[in-house]
Amino acid sequence: MFPGVFALANGLAHAGALSPDDYAWWRAANDHGDAAYTDPSTVDPACFDRELNPGAVSWFKSTATSLISTCDGYLALLDRYGVPWTELRTDHPGMIVYEDDVQVVATPYSYPEHWRMSDGRSRVSPG
Description:
Layout: H1 5-14, H2 20-36, H3 40-43, E1 57-60, H4 65-80, E2 89-92, E3 95-99, E4 103-107, E5 116-118, E6 123-124
Antiparallel strand pairs: 1-4, 2-5, 3-4, 5-6
Helix pairs in contact: 1-4, 2-4
């Protein structure tokens, strides 16, 4: 599974790789996100537990346009630092272990034939 946009940006910041201006932007953007959106682990501490929910990842709902639009700045940050990223879309993120108005946390399905992804142009099937 690919790391998420926020994980990639946080990795740059925690590694000390950001310029002072980019670090300030990242800090402010993360603070805004923390204030505006629920961290699933504060509602269900087990949702990212590696033993209970192996491979659990967050997915934005397609209706969460405000949250999705916040990614633009993060993607620009990743591009500036040459960090590759991939946008994934699916109607079937896996087994849902947490859900709120803007996101779900899901564990991957156990069988490849259950996993359906789309890049918005064509269907992509595993291996």
